[in-house]
Amino acid sequence: MKKGFNILLILCAALVAISCSKTKSYTDMLKDEKKAIERLIDANDFEILDDFPKDSIFKENQFVKLENGIYLNIIDKGSSERAVQYKTKMLYRCKLHYILEVDTLVYENYGPHSNGTYPIPFTYGDYSNSNPYDPSYQWVSEGLQTPLQYVGDRARVKLIVPFKRGTYYDQSKGLPVYYEILEYIFEENL
């Protein structure tokens, strides 16, 4: 009896050791993210500014790193009307890439015809949801909403969003995201 129990105990310990080794630690995810962001910046010759430009006008390859770790480039500030947290209903269209391994286009609903896709709705200030059946689980985040304090309706920006500021899905997988273009649309102005 003891011999059978010891064998079972050894097998369980081996299974736990094997299964744990396949999971990345948070530290490993942060290291991988840092390398991926540096690779993206180098490959595209992005210039990282220390300060936000006084006139809010960025050159095509300039980004500012904000206090929360997000890299921002404003293409077009849009209207002077600003979103109000927890009140303004928004839509967005984008072209995004997950940049961890290879720059692979994951999602695009931006463009003249947008391939029959719809803009993604959200309320400014409501961040990612942990319910995988809720669209915000994979499509809405703090990082995506950060530029709204600087821009208005119909604004277009570029963003590099570290996974800890990404959607619940991005956070769970350790996936930083590059928004090649992101356009905000105030629902009331459609």
From TrEMBL:
GO molecular function, one term: peptidyl-prolyl cis-trans isomerase activity
Gene3D superfamilies per UniProt: 3.10.50.40
Signal sequence, renumbered to the chain: none
InterPro entries documented for this protein: DUF4827, PPIase_dom_sf
Pfam families (alphabetical): DUF4827 (PF16109)
Protein name per UniProt: DUF4827 domain-containing protein
Origin species: Parabacteroides distasonis
